[in-house]
Amino acid sequence: MLNFLGMPVQAATHANDVDSLISIVHWLMFVLFIGWGAFFVYVLFRYRKSAHPTASYTGAKGKLSKGLEVGVAIIEVILLIGYAIPAWAKRVTNFPGGNDATIVRVTGHQFAWEVQYPGADGKFGRTDPKLVSAENLIGLDRSDPDAKDDIVTSNQLNLPVDRPVLVHLSSQDVIHSFGLYEMRVKQDAIPGLDIPVWFIPTRAGEYEITCSQLCGLGHYRMRGFVTVQSAADYAKWMADQVKALTP
Ligand SMILES: [Cu+2]
User: Fold this and answer.
1) Distance from Cα 188 to the centre of ligand 1, integer Å
2) From 38's CA, which of 2, 64, 132, 233 has a CA 20 to 30 Å away?
């Protein structure tokens, strides 16, 4: 019953929570739509001019209408407190860290996504807006010891499957939005802020990073790619990046 909305495949552990909520909200709206629609047709007929030449300004007063209104409000409160807030709370607490997680920085700019891996030392090298150039889009300071082993890719995010991912999200210019539909991730990237986003990818494959916030003329082409791969393939990819880095 879940996929009647034609949602993308679920490629993260929390995807089902998001889909359940969206699904329940749609069912509730469907029931309300039918109910209100039927009521509208009923009053059009029941209070037609020939049957009721004088309008009533007081409106419905019955117990049924009050009961229905309270019922709908209670269902909405249950959705908010029982589903939406707990689902959101899981996204903004218990951020993974240390050796259990893949930690990356993703920086949006007009019109691409730059990815920075901290390398073997696990520390992100210093970046400086003054160093930004066509060859160094994130302005990484390679003279910083922490930066020496950092891996930088453009529009390409590789991740090992079934391992928590922590993305430090930011932007260099305007507000962009990091959208990974299959992972049910969408978060604005805001200049000057480091916004943590975490998820656990569960399906190997190729996915897209879609900029989900209108950010300028080239917004339509601001798309990156996510490759979710087995731990072995990821290690191999990372080894290739490291090799390419060493002169
Ligand atoms: Cu954008």
Assistant:
1) 9
2) 2
